[in-house]
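can u do me a favor
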C-alpha cells in the first residue's frame, strides 16, 4: 500500500502486462475501496490494511466499470456494499456468461455483482470529505470516476489511461470526448488512472487529443482506400513526448487494436 496523499492510498499489481491500481480512501465514517483488481487474492494487502486502519468505518466498495481487471476481486468483499453505475451488474453478468475465449476466466470464488447502483451521480458526504461517483461513459457504457472534493483527487478508472486510452469495448468516440471535456471542469489537482501513473489534468487533454487524432487519421486512411489490416499509423503521431516515451510493447499492441476499433466505427 502506497500513501498518495493524506487519507488516500493505492495498491498496484501487474495484470497481464498492464500496471493496475486500486484505491483506498478513509473518510471520517467510511472506508472506500475503488476497484477489486483481478482476483480476491490481489486484494489481500488491502484487507490487511483495512483490518489495521479502517476501525469501525463502513466499507464501501466501488467498481469503476465491469472489465475483469476491475471487478474479479469482488469476492474479497462479499459482505460489503458494492456500488457501481446501474448498467454495470448486467455487463459483469454478460462477461461471466460469455463464451469468448479472449476473456479471462473468473476466479473460483465467483464475482459478486454490485448490489447498489445509480444513474448519473451518487455522493457520500462526510464531514471531512465528499466522495462523488460520477457516470462517465466512453471507455465503457458503465464507466464511472470517483471525485474527492476536499482532496482534489480524481480516481479515473479507465476513463483516462496512461500512456494512451484503450478503445476496446468502448461506448463510442463522441460519448468519450464529451465525458473528457466534462472532467476537465472538475477542480482536481491529481488524476489517478487505473492503468499508469498519477499526474495532473494534462492526462485528460492528452487522451482527448489521442482519441480525436486517431479517429481523424483512420477516417482519412479509410477514405484513401487503405485496407483495415494495413493501417500504418505509429502511436507517437498522436502522443506528446512523455506519453510516446512511455509507450511500451503492451501499449503499442493496444494502439494497433485501437486503430482497428476506430476503423470499424468511422
Ligand atoms: Zn476497462
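np, heres the sequence
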Amino acid at each position: 500500500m502506497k500513501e498518495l496523499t493524506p487519507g488516500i492510498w493505492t495498491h498496484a499489481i501487474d495484470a497481464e502486462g498492464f500496471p493496475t491500481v486500486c484505491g483506498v480512501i478513509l473518510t471520517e465514517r467510511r472506508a472506500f475501496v475503488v476497484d477489486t483488481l483481478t482476483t480476491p487474492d490481489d486484494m489481500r494487502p488491502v484487507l490487511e490494511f483495512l483490518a489495521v486502519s479502517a476501525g469501525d468505518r463502513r466499507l464501501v466498495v466501488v467498481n469503476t466499470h465491469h472489465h475483469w481487471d476491475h471487478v474479479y476481486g469482488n469476492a474479497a468483499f462479499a459482505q460489503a456494499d458494492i456500488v457501481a453505475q446501474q448498467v454495470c451488474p448486467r455487463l459483469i453478468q454478460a462477461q461471466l456468461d460469455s463464451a469468448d475465449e479472449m476473456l479471462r476466466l473468473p476466479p473460483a470464488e465467483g464475482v459478486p455483482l454490485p448490489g447498489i447502483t445509480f444513474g448519473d451521480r451518487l455522493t457520500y458526504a462526510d464531514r471531512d470529505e465528499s466522495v462523488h461517483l460520477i457516470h462517465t461513459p466512453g471507455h465503457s457504457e458503465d464507466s464511472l470516476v470517483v471525485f474527492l472534493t476536499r482532496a482534489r483527487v480524481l480516481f479515473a478508472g479507465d476513463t483516462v489511461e496512461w500512456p494512451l486510452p484503450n478503445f476496446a469495448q468502448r461506448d463510442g468516440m463522441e460519448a468519450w470526448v464529451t465525458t473528457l471535456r466534462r472532467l476537465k471542469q472538475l477542480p482536481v489537482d491529481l488524476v489517478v488512472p487505473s492503468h499508469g501513473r498519477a499526474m495532473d489534468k494534462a492526462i485528460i487533454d492528452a487522451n482527448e487529443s489521442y482519441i480525436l487524432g486517431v479517429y481523424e487519421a483512420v477516417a482519412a486512411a479509410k477514405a484513401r482506400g487503405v485496407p483495415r489490416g494495413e493501417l500504418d499509423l505509429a502511436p507517437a503521431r498522436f502522443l506528446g513526448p512523455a506519453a510516446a516515451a512511455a509507450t511500451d510493447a503492451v501499449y503499442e499492441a493496444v494502439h494497433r487494436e485501437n486503430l482497428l476499433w476506430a476503423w470499424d466505427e468511422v
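Residues 210-265 form one domain. hope that helps!!
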